[in-house]
Specification:
Length: about 850
Amino acid sequence: MTSARQTPMMQQYFEVKRGLPPGTLLLFRLGDFFEMFYADAEAGSRLLGLTLTKRQDAPMAGIPYHAVDTYVSRLLAAGRKVAICDQQEPARPGRLVRRSLVRILSPGTTLAANHLEAARNHYLCALALDKGVLRAAWLDLSTGEFKIAADPHPENLLPVLAALAPREVLVAEGSLEAWRTSPHEQTAVHALHAFCTGRACTELPAYHFDTAAGARSVMETLGVLNLEGFGLNHTHRGLGPAGALVHYATENLCAKPENLRTLQEYRSAHTLLIDPATLRNLEIFQSARGTREGSLVAAISRTVTAAGARLLERWLASPTLELAEIRRRQSVVGELLAQPPRLAELHDRLRDVRDIPRILGRLQNRLRHPRELGGIRDTLAQLPAIIQCTAAFEAGPVPPVELSGNPPPAVAELKSRLADLPALRELLNRALADELPGDLQEGGYIRGGYDAGVDRLRALNRESKTWLSDLERTEQERTGIKSLKVRFNSVFGYYIEVTKANLHLVPADYIRRQTTVGGERYVTEALKQKEKEILHAEEKAVARELELFNVLVAAVIAEAAALRQTADALAELDVLAGWAALVREWDYCRPELDEGEVLEITEGRHPVVEQMLKAPDASPALGGQAFVPNDTVMACAEAQILVVTGPNMAGKSTYIRQVALITLLAQIGCWVPAKRCRIGLVDRIFSRVGASDDLARGNSTFMVEMNETANILNNYTARSLIILDEIGRGTSTYDGLSIAWAVVEHLHRNPDRGPRTLFATHYQELTQLEQHLPRLRNYSVAVKEWNDDIVFVRRVVPGAADRSYGIQVARLAGLPAGVIDRAKLILGKLESDDTEVALPSPNARPKKKLTVRPGDEDQLDLL
């Protein structure tokens, strides 16, 4: 449609549309609907299941304005960007309504509560790879968390980025294609492309990633003259991506983000790194089924606030290497644990704490609703009791801890960060009604008696409504029309409705306004005058309430720093109080951590499996069983590598994973499922567990296994913890055994020390290595035999297993008896190592019970 033929409204539409990034769907407000036109309408109708209509030959599809958030959530989930163009004034006859773009929503920049998962962080990330240096920045616009990093070793940054799971990634134009087509030997580049694959990615012009421009943009947004107060230099290479984040957020908010007040540098040297494969293999954030249930985070979370749940997620994504911080968290748990009644009271009080960080983020970025202020008010109402409750822990008993020195009470430090803010609490209590609407235009959120002007206008409205009721009754009596009604709609205002059967009774002073299917609508001069008074009073009342609301918002924002500090402390209390409850429920112990190389766990248990065994909905095969604890003793210079053998289903995988999970829990400051635990700090946790392919990227099961193994061998340090659950099973037996053997030797190659490693395997030949590698120890999972069946004991004991019991396990799995008998015959022939004798015919049956004695089979001499 040419501009000459466009209506003024459509000219307005195209003016907004031309300024949007390509691919953005524009929702254009028309009365009670947000409309999409042309290609946007066609795409929106497909994604949302809307009816596609036409207006002057232009395809269009509409969404009711009151349901727009629901539809926008679906568009964001589909990875689309959505622009909102809203009306800035009420519609008036004969005038074009003023409209403007109010914000652009993308997967990483949305702020509305119903677009976010309350318990999950919502990161927007920007990346650039420059001469081998990975430059990165990430931002949670909903809370104001803002971090930058730069590392010449991308493999140090990618683990934390994968754990953060950003909803959207910004890169320079052309980067994705360049990374995709880079030479295969550039493993860091391919890892970067793999990280971006499957995520919502937005390409921006490369100049947005310039370091100098980024520094200027960040300083302007933070309102500072330099970055020294944040411990940063203006040449930090992460400032380029940070500038790209600020530009993108500003463009989408249609204003500078106002909740960014600090910038932190992330340093991988201060963090325990967990690569994406290990996050998946250990089921840290989601189970193998893809659900939160059955994951580590679900097992250890007892949080009752959204901010607390997100903090726990951040601690798991980036475990600290700072012993002082780990011990501080442990101490808080210990102090809370020492007073069960007060712990229960604190937990109950925290349940009424609202999501202050995200409420502040919306208020500061002009997304304002009465219920947001209600959330601040409700939280402030709980603070005096929470402060009093935490104060009680200072004087209470503290369990003895085997640590040197006598540190001050840890709960007291958290209490010192809680700001009471009595003036703000009193203001919000006086000003806000008990029940708050969701929309400012509804009015009614200012408490009666707070403002004389609002009270007077409301009284006028009440009197007018009474007048209307009296008018309806009077007109029914005057006309004799018992069904006469006085009604209102947004198009015609107030009117008198008369059915067709009573039209002959209509008085001469009625003025007809509209004919309907069932009758006629009329007004009178008195009704028109009263309508003006009512609408004017309502409009003035809403305007006055909005004026007062903005004053309240300003009062809250003035205390934003204190509120944010308080919210952070409350989130910590929530996580740590939850852990104290977890310790009481499951009998966890406080681990000892130091800078040494020892890993000692007495009666350790798997934190997830233990709970699943006791769950009410546990499978009949597992339900009601008690988890069998096991010990672990390792040291880099002594028992560095534990080779664990035993049959399938005996518990090898559970055992090696529980060691990794206990280590991880210890380094986030949590107590652990064990009787006693001592761990020398670990800088990385690696795992090679399970078998799966990646056909979308052309990788077989074996190739995936080799990729993960290569990542471990190329990046481990002497302080790392490695768990390997089979290597080489995706290829021929001898090839697989050779690779596994060489991997073990490689991990042991340093003459003095190496990474603590647990290797679960069915390759019995590997147990010979104990005779030749001084820091390798053999362990096995014990079983009992009974009448050619096996009973799983679940105990890990010193020494190698004598065989794998594969056929017995196959019987337990339900393989047909004929298959089991045939397998026994074939196994006996293979174990005889008589390659000149043919295998038994398929019709043969075992004539006697086969027995295999340890040591009968000849071992390969690979040394």
